[in-house]
Structure formats: structure tokens, C-alpha cells
Write a structure and sequence with these properties.
Layout (H helix, E strand, L loop, with lengths): L2 H20 L4 H10 L4 H25 L5 H22 L4 H20 L17 H16 L4 H13 L3 H25 L5 H22 L4 H22 L1
Helix pairs in contact: 1-2, 1-3, 1-9, 2-3, 3-8, 3-9, 4-6, 4-8, 5-7, 5-10, 6-7, 7-8, 8-10
Length: 248
């Protein structure tokens, strides 16, 4: 690996980490970069998850230090998402790339509609476990299944659906999203490691940048205009994903 390649991994990782934590879609930058640097698709997919896990660890730690404390709720939301991700990964081995893209376009279009609908009336009650209804758990299972199936843009769905179902501020929704993605990415990374599909040198350099980007994204998210940033960047990511699939 040359010095230029190492710098590219750190710099692109930083941009991707910022996008992933504040919205979603950073893998649209990192996966092509890893493959451009010579990694086969499976190795790129596994190596990219090193960055996702470490940027999520960085973001969760920063959120906790900034005052986000609802760990119990995050864990409850993560359980059905992990179960769904395992089902989605199993399904992904049995369908065509054409179906992948069709599902992705439909999911992103649905998420954009949810984000553009009028803002729901936000709940002022504390987000206690009793507010996590069966509908919320079913939605987490479905999005987790999508994440295991495709992964690209999964954070967009978590943001859009939790925002509508829980009716809490987008900045708080983003905290839950980051934690859930961390939890369900860990077993996925373990599977790639067992199959020897992780290039640690590339993954750790990518993670150096992504952890820095994640730290900056947390600062923006917890700021006074954090919710507005989340909404705007999420819509930009949705548009980029749909245009990439339709025209390139």
C-alpha cells in the first residue's frame, strides 16, 4: 500500500464517517474505494465493516459523554433488528443483483416520502420501554432484515421510521440509529472474520478517518440545529442513492 492510498483511506473514511453518523450512505464512498485499491468485493465488504463498527463505537461513546443515556431503550430496539439482519443475510445469498437494486430503490423512495411528510407532533413524555409497541419492534425487525439483505442506506430507514413511530426529535432518533447499527454490525463482522474476508490494514486506516468523521458528526447532531442537519443530509443521501441506481 502506498502513502497516497493510505491517505485516501483516511480522508474518504472521514467523509464517510460523518455521513454515516449524521445520516447514512457513507459505504457508497468506502466500498468503491476499497475495490479500486484492489480488494475483491467480498473482502471490501468485510473490511468496510471494521470502519463501520469503530466509527459507531466512537459515535456511541461521544453521544454518551454528551448526555445521551437511554441505553436500555437502544438495546430493546436492537434485538429485533439483529434477528432481522440474520434473516436478511440468509435471503441475500439466494436472490439476484437486479432484485437487490429494485428493493433499494423502493426502500429509499418510501423513506424520502416519510421524511418529506409534515413533521409529526412530538411526544413530550419520557421515552419509556412501554412506548416500544409491537409495531415498533416489527419495524426494527423489517429494517434489520433490509440491512442484512443490502446494508446501503439502512440508516435512512431507521431515521425515517423511528421518527414517525416514536415521534421524538430527529437528533435523538439519530442516537438510537447509531447504537442499533453498531449492535447488528458486530455479528456480521465476526462472520467475515471467520471467513478470512477482512484486510485489517485497510480497515483500520479507513477507521482512523471514519472515527474522526463520526466525532464531528456527533458535535453537529447534538448542536442546536442538529435535527435540521439530520433531515437535510438524509434527504441528500436518499437522492444520491436513487440517482446512482437509476442513471449509473
Amino acid at each position: 500500500m502506498s502513502l497516497l492510498e493510505a491517505l485516501a483511506l483516511v480522508l474518504i473514511g472521514g467523509v464517510a464517517g460523518f455521513i454515516n453518523v449524521l445520516a447514512a450512505g457513507g459505504s457508497m464512498l468506502t466500498l468503491p474505494l476499497l475495490m479500486f485499491l484492489g480488494l475483491p468485493a467480498q473482502e471490501a465488504n468485510g473490511t468496510n465493516r471494521v470502519s463501520i463498527v469503530l466509527q459507531s463505537v466512537s459515535a456511541v461513546g461521544s453521544f454518551f459523554r454528551a448526555g445521551a443515556r437511554e441505553l436500555g431503550v437502544s438495546l430493546r430496539l436492537s434485538i429485533p433488528a439483529v434477528a432481522g439482519a440474520l434473516v436478511g443475510a440468509w435471503l441475500a445469498l439466494r436472490v439476484s443483483d437486479v432484485l437487490f437494486e429494485a428493493v433499494l430503490i423502493v426502500a429509499m423512495a418510501g423513506a424520502s416520502v416519510m421524511m418529506l411528510l409534515p413533521q409529526p407532533r412530538l411526544e413530550t413524555r419520557a421515552l419509556t420501554p412501554d412506548r416500544l409497541t409491537p409495531v415498533v419492534h416489527l419495524a426494527m425487525f423489517a429494517i434489520g432484515m433490509y440491512g442484512g439483505f443490502i446494508q446501503v442506506g439502512v440508516g435512512v430507514l431507521f431515521i425515517a421510521v423511528l421518527y414517525r413511530l416514536l415521534r421524538i426529535d430527529l437528533a435523538q432518533v439519530n442516537v438510537f440509529k447509531v447504537f442499533i447499527i453498531l449492535i447488528y454490525t458486530l455479528p456480521a463482522l465476526a462472520l467475515f472474520m471467520l471467513d478470512d474476508q477482512v484486510r485489517w490494514g485497510y480497515g483500520l486506516l479507513l477507521a482512523v478517518g471514519s472515527m474522526s468523521g463520526a466525532w464531528l458528526a456527533v458535535k453537529v447532531n447534538m448542536g442546536p440545529r442538529g435535527a435540521l442537519w439530520v433531515k437535510r443530509l438524509t434527504l441528500v443521501v436518499i437522492a444520491a442513492i436513487v440517482l446512482r441506481l437509476l442513471f449509473f
